[in-house]
Amino acid sequence: MKQHLMLVRHGETVGNKDQIAHGQTESPLSHRGVAQARCTAQMLQNWQPTYQRVYTSPLSRAQDTGRYISEALELPMHVHDGLQEAFLGKLEGVSYAQLGEFDYARRSMQDDDFNDHQGESPNQLAQRITSAIQDLRNLHANENIIVVSHGAAISHALASLLATKPLFGARYLMHNSAVTEIVFEPDVRLMHLNIHDHLTELMANEPFSEPTDTARKT
Q1: Three-state secondary structure along 154-187?
Q2: Is CATH 3.40.50.1240 correct for 3-179+191-203?
Q3: In this structure, are residues 165 and 108 in contact, taking their beta carbons and an 8 Å threshold?
Q4: For the CA atoms of 66, 72, 76, 80, what is the dihedral angle to 10 degrees?
Q5: Domain definitions of the chain by residue range
Q6: DSSP code per residue over 44-63
Q7: pTM of the model
């Protein structure tokens, strides 16, 4: 049976704005992140096909984003622990610059079992997130589901579900509050990737990039 899955990245956080890699550490939505989440929720009111429920990561940035969506669409919202962001181990809370000095992205893309940071490897993250998605599909086999999660978690899930390598699927990184839609027919097919046209130019920041001076003043 055909089943649609909408993957939504949470709105911009204080950590995103300050270029801090929080992983599974809490970081609240920024003011712009709240505006992004509300804008995405409004856009999804007119989305076809319709969706029947929302699941989010347990981290507050995902729950808060998901709450705007569930309220706008009048859908029940649930939390699944398996949808949270990658555990970065000793890199939790470092700056994006320090993450770059550690060569985290390149090393992750070269080795699906890379875990020198004492965190989750690409294989471990992909297995966790795809297992969580399968749980949701088993629980709600006849429903379309919105999943609100995180940048790395979603990109690993897509790389795994679409059987592309490396599992650190940098090609699938999304803007804050962007949406990606896949369909199971039963094979997985990518319908839409990183849709963010509904966000204004100032709200649509690049994944893992420094906000512009103009955006910082808003």
Answers
A1: HHHHHHHHCCCCCCCCHHHCCCCCCEEEEEECCC
A2: yes
A3: no
A4: -10
A5: 3-179+191-203
A6: HTT-SS---EEEE-SSHHHH
A7: 0.92
Write the pLDDT tens digit of every residue in 106-154: 999 999 999 999 999 999 999 999 999 999 999 999 999 999 999 999 9
CA angle, 13 as apex, 39 and 160 as ends, to 5°? 85
- Chain position carrying tokens 């993450």: 99
Write out pLDDT tens, residues 158-204: 999 999 999 999 999 999 999 999 999 989 999 999 999 999 865 65
C-beta pairs of 130-137 under 8 Å, 24+ apart in sequence: 130/157, 130/160, 130/161, 131/82, 132/80, 132/81, 132/82, 132/83, 133/5, 133/157, 133/161, 135/80, 135/82, 136/55, 136/80, 137/3, 137/5, 137/184
Unique residue bearing structure tokens 């890699």: 21
Whole-angstrom Cα distance, residue 159 to residue 182?
12
